Predict the structure.
Amino acid sequence: MFYSKISTMKKTRATAIPDDVESLKQQLLEMQILLQKTQRESLHHQQEAKRFQQLYNHALEQWQLALRKRFAASSEGHPGQGELFNEAEDSLTPSDEEVAADETITYTRKKSRRPSLSADLPREDVVHDIADAEKVCDDCGHDLHQMGEEVSEKLEFIPATVKVIRHIRPKYSCRCCEQQATRTTIKVAPVPASLLPKSIATPTLLSQIITAKYQFGLPLYRQEALFNSFGIELHRQTMSRWLIKISSQLTPLYERMHALMLERSALWSDDTPVKVIDVDKSQCTMWVYGCGGDKPERLPDNTAAPPNIVLYDYQDGRGGIHPNTFLTGYHGLLQVDGYAGYHGTDAILAGCWAHARRKFIEAKAVQPKGKIGRADVALNLIQKLYGIEKSIRQLSIADKRAARQTRSVPIMAELKVWLDKAVHHVPPKTAIGKAIGYTLNQWDKQQVYLEHGAAAIDNNRAERAIKPFVIGRKNWLFSNSRSGAQASAMLYSLIETAKANDVPPGAYLTALFEQLPHLNDGEPVDHLLPWAIRL
């Protein structure tokens, strides 16, 4: 555009070049102004083009991530898992053979595996024998003898059965007093202790309802239909009232587990939103706190470790006051995600490398297919850290810390140098820019596990603990009331704590509901906790 204007000016003024200096200066000034204007327009167009290109790239990344989230596998694994993998820094550009290998589809037939049947299951033998007349040799006519047998097993399912337990209490009176028309003495056995007096609920029925909803995600309206199929009229409103009444009686157990949890040296926490109809809040929250792993652990000297505890805590909002209140007086380690509300606690916050890795995996997903980029560099270094954790899993707390100081610290330093350099070469709003920015913002917390052997490298244990609630929420969608949400928190706590200690939740709840009514006011409840109860 500029050059066309200049050429036009040359043509129009080629025959009219001024002779005086002032006119010549004026003409040069006009040409200079025109040049500056054209340059500004050109720069503006370049900036607009760059901005639209960035918007296009951002929209393309978001679209690719949405497709991946909806249709791709949810695994967060990376080819560099463990100690042995190819360094991305040494081979940033794949060879032709590698590209061809990536584009080759290999079809393998998946070998079927027969389901295993536990040896503890009761067995019934059914013998399929040939007729006595056939037990002779077809060649010589002599009798055949049994040389062995062929056994195959099939699983028979016996549907659940229900029955009515009639509690009969004979009444006794004095005939002599009856004949004399005096006050008659009547004696009858006391009403058996029950968790819900004057209701038809038994410990086994309550256990079935609770485990069906909170362990297997079966809403009460579906359970109502299930009971109807057995000829039992049991409304969902009745079951809901039962659960709320039971949860209020379980408060001493919850408070005792809470007190025991705060005595531990390392905890983890996570949260998820929940919709409560009668609460005028845009976002209610179910928090989960816990200590220990998914299964009971044993210390290196083969002694039993302290029990695992999982507690849910419903709150009307997501403010930092809620974890601060729950963790009052706690000064140990707390494994968390990037939520800033935990900063008000007195705990030592340990970050989560799984969250950082997840963002780099998203950045890798939007890279050109078959290309290795910055996301692969970060992922390979992070996977080195995970490989070290896998190799030291069975060590003591002190040995874990020593191994991390020797093996993980140098890798962490290398990763920090790379992040500090890469952050200046990527746009901050791209997927890789967000991954690098998040990791740098969380860097101090993600360093904590190196100094504390009791800490984990990530917060995946808390995410696994919140998952049963998330799965159940997909079925029942919301809670009608605050009391219902609080009852859910109480019952989820007992079920998940039982599971974390290898105690069958159904058997535990049945035993608990049988023994709890006999507990006196103020009596310790330690013998009724999931890991200590007598089944």
User: Anything to note?
Assistant: Strands lie at 171-173, 186-188, 266-274, 284-291, 309-315, 333-335, 348-350.
